[in-house]
Amino acid sequence: MTFLEADRYAEIQREVPIACVDLLCAFPERAAAGEPDLLLIERRDAEDRSGMLNLVGGRIHHGESLEEAAMRHLHETLGDGVIAEPRDWGRPEWVAVYPHRDAGPGPYDPRQHSVSPSYLLRCSGVPRVEAGGEAEGLHFFAAADPPPGDRFGFGQGDVVARLLEAL
To answer: Where do the structural domains in the chain lie, given as residue ranges?
Structure first.
């Protein structure tokens, strides 16, 4: 796979919405054991938002399908020991639009304008923080007890609320 030079990509980020994918991972075996089952990551972030909660996900590479991008982000972030159940990738639970700036309530991305199909993804296995990945920690919660909005980076609390409505 080839990548654009940094200055060329920065130019594109200023001019064109970037396609991404967001995943709220559900681990039903944890729920069956009476434990919180929905997973967010505490993100390692260059923009000084370390420790903020975020969905698993990120950019879709040129030529990748939604499933390929989602599985790449899932495994880069949570490890190859996490297995996702098959799903219809053409039917996201929500499509989040992240304007380039914080315009009030809702998601935003200070780096770019992005559009992200957002999925509730049933998973099994044992997630872990992957060396070199974007997560610095894992945060499980129950659907009835989501984290407060000020704990989320990129305004993703609103995206999580939409995904929880799909439950």
So the answer is: 19-165
Q: Does domain 19-165 have CATH number 3.90.79.10?
A: yes
Question: How far apart, in whole angstroms, are the C-alpha atoms of residue 18 and residue 78?
Answer: 23
> Per residue of the chain (167 residues), what is the pLDDT tens digit?
667 898 988 888 888 999 999 999 999 999 999 999 999 999 866 565 668 999 999 999 999 999 999 999 999 999 999 999 999 999 999 999 999 876 677 898 888 899 999 999 999 999 999 888 889 999 999 999 999 999 999 999 999 999 999 98
**Ordered alpha helix ranges (H), 57-142:** 66-78
Q: How far is CA 119 from CA 17, 55, 80, 88, in A?
A: 19, 10, 19, 10
Structure tokens at 160: 């999580």
pTM (global) more than 0.85: yes
